[in-house]
Specification:
Layout (H helix, E strand, L loop, with lengths): L22 H14 L6 H18 L14 H7 L4 H23 L28 H13 L3 H11 L5 E8 H6 L4 H6 L6 H7 L10 E9 L6 H12 L1 H16 L9 H9 L7 H10 L15 H5 L9 H9 L8 E2 L4 E2 H15 L2
């Protein structure tokens, strides 16, 4: 990825909308995070992932924001603060998704794929761990299928009904931020409060845009409040149900879900890939519902289970020379892993895998 063609001279001169973090703080927060973080992927992909963390920091008041929240900050703002061209950054993120989609197409066509790599033999997401994990393409497709559907509104609704749990859910929309401001709301409120009964009102007010301009951002709209789910549990449970390759597939589906939040054309690409492989796996929507239930965080475990973002999944614990993804794949594959703390210290991997074993025994006694 060459930096010279991505620089954006007008990075810090554009007028700021309310609730958008100052460019200098965005830049400094990125520099501070980059200095202390190494991900298990190439440096250029690391940059594409870390930028999204800065958006999260601005929303939550973390890092160098020191408690000040800027709920309308988007990755566009982060890209401009880093003097990068937002369009190029979006293209590069889309290319990573395209490689996963191409891999799924090759698997669906019956190619005997042995590793999760692209046509040139480079690991998907440029994640070096994937070079060393032998896979079975049908197993990866199972993970892409169930992992790509488990977050969907309909699947979570079904899981809530079938298993009597109370998972929250929502989906991303193109949101006109000027309309959002006019409605007296911000991105934080949109993502945190349940709006299932206000969706029509939002539509009528013009909140959901048809296409992008500089005031339109792809934002998460929560429909129902409730308990969350653990991406770590999804990857490990997929592996326990359908084998190590399914854990790899579920990880890739989660990565698509993260990357698609900032791409040239917004759509639900993890579920599109799930549809693409659907007829090549012996799984149904019911299996996705089971996975959604198994990775839902029970009330008594709230705050005690990890839900690693893509960054935390790939972040190397220098004491162990291991990232969470490697630990999860080692556990599923019954190979050695080092004890480590997951996510923001919710629990250790050893405690987490004990929980997984207990949950599975309850699920299929």
């Amino acid at each position: 990825m060459s930096h010279h063609n991505r620089h954006n001279k007008h990075a810090r001169t554009q007028p700021r909308l309310p609730g958008v973090a100052p460019p200098d703080t965005l830049y400094e927060d990125y520099a501070a995070l980059d200095a202390k973080t190494t991900l298990r992927c190439t440096a250029d992909v690391e940059e594409l992932i870390l930028m999204q963390s800065i958006e999260g920091h601005a929303h939550e008041g973390h890092g160098l924001f020191h408690g000040r929240k800027y709920a309308n900050t988007t990755i566009d703002d982060v890209a401009r603060a880093l003097r990068l061209n937002p369009d190029d950054v979006k293209e590069e993120r889309q290319l990573l998704i395209d490689e996963i989609r191409e891999f799924a197409e090759r698997a669906a066509a019956g190619e005997k794929l042995r590793f999760a790599v692209n046509a040139d033999g480079r690991p998907l997401l440029r994640c070096g761990s994937l070079r060393n994990v032998p896979i079975d393409p049908v197993g990866v497709m199972k993970g892409l299928y169930a992992g790509g559907l488990r977050d969907g509104v309909e699947v979570r609704r079904l899981a809530n009904r079938r298993y009597g749990v109370d998972m929250g859910y929502g989906e991303c929309h193109l949101v006109d931020q000027e309309v959002l401001h006019r409605l007296g709301m911000d991105g934080y409120e949109l993502a945190r409060r349940g709006h299932e009964h206000e969706i029509e009102r939002f539509r009528d007010a013009g909140l959901f845009a048809e296409n992008g301009n500089e005031h339109v951002a792809y934002m998460y709209v929560r429909y129902k409040e409730g308990l969350g789910a653990s991406d770590d549990a999804a990857i490990v449970m997929a592996g326990k149900l359908w084998g190590l390759s399914a854990a790899v597939g579920c990880f890739l589906a989660d990565a698509v879900d993260t990357l698609e939040k900032y791409v040239p054309q917004y759509s639900d690409q993890d579920s599109e890939i799930a549809e693409l492989v659907a007829e090549h796996v012996e799984l149904t929507i019911d299996d996705a519902v089971d996975l959604a239930y198994l990775c839902s965080i029970p009330e008594e475990m709230d705050g005690k289970l990890p839900d690693d973002s893509l960054r935390h999944m790939l972040q190397i614990d220098r004491k162990q020379d291991q990232c969470a993804l490697e630990s999860h794949l080692a556990y599923v594959g019954d190979t050695p892993y080092s004890p480590m703390v997951l996510d923001h210290g919710e629990c250790t991997n050893v405690e987490f895998y004990d929980y997984i074993e207990r949950r599975l025994i309850e699920f299929r006694p």
